Amino acid sequence: MTLQLTPLPALMIEPAVRAALAEDLGRAGDITTQATVPAEAKARVLINARQPGRVAGLDCARMAFRLVDPSLKVAVVKADGSDVEPGDTIAAIEGPARGILTGERVALNFLGHMSGIATSTREIARAIEGTKAHVCCTRKTTPGLRIFEKYAVRAGGGMNHRFGLDDAVLIKDNHIAMSGGIEAAISRAKAASGHMVKIEVEVDTLDQLDQALAVGVDAVLLDNMTPEMLTEAVRRIGGRAVAEASGRITAATAPAIAASGVDLISCGWITHSAPCLDVGLDFESLTAS
What we know:
Layout: H1 10-25, H2 31-36, E1 42-49, E2 53-54, H3 58-68, E3 73-76, E4 83-84, E5 89-96, H4 97-127, E6 134-136, H5 146-155, E7 169-171, H6 173-179, H7 182-192, E8 199-203, H8 206-215, E9 219-223, H9 227-237, E10 242-246, H10 254-258, E11 264-266, H11 269-272, E12 279-287
Parallel strand pairs: 6-11, 7-8, 8-9, 9-10, 10-11
Antiparallel strand pairs: 1-5, 1-12, 2-4, 3-5
């Protein structure tokens, strides 16, 4: 399945980028740039990749520059979802030099972080090519940045799990313990949920899986199971529910897990621990005022 990468609306991007700029500008603004760069100076700079990866976050970077100075022109060379190699130009910015320098760090913070997530997602997606499985993210995201991090997962070729607690019912181990067991938890969830709400339950053993299937659920989260256990779990599910594997899965371990026949491989680390993609802003030239 190839998912179309739909850009985030500017209405969702602007508040987060504005807050980041306000945090960076503080009480007196960019005192370094104001002191060293003439107000009339104009420049052209390039955002270049320092290492191979997958691009995500250009709209956030562009928003940062434009909020600082609406006259800045940002030309995208490598769109979100594109692969880059070291030295590739991702975007070019031209206009008042002060605005470029003031917006630089916030723009690169969003771009580097989101591109790092896209790159990590791409690694797993490539590792499981040829299987039916898709990599998806979790709610293990940076507070306040979830929509951006989940967008970056899509840019990397992955899929999104729940965006919040209100998306779907996901019954985990502590829910089961506090509700009196799998059957009780699922039955209560069914009674309390509307007909459009999906119900998923997390299981650690094949016995728990059988209990969940006996009651009936839309999806099962097969947590920390070996590839052999996953293969048997998929056999028992028999297409009656979506099979999702989780538990510290990496690009190295993903192929064997995908070969078990699961539908989804969920990874928390691709959002909470993905390394930032190294991107930098390189001066190209001063332009006429």
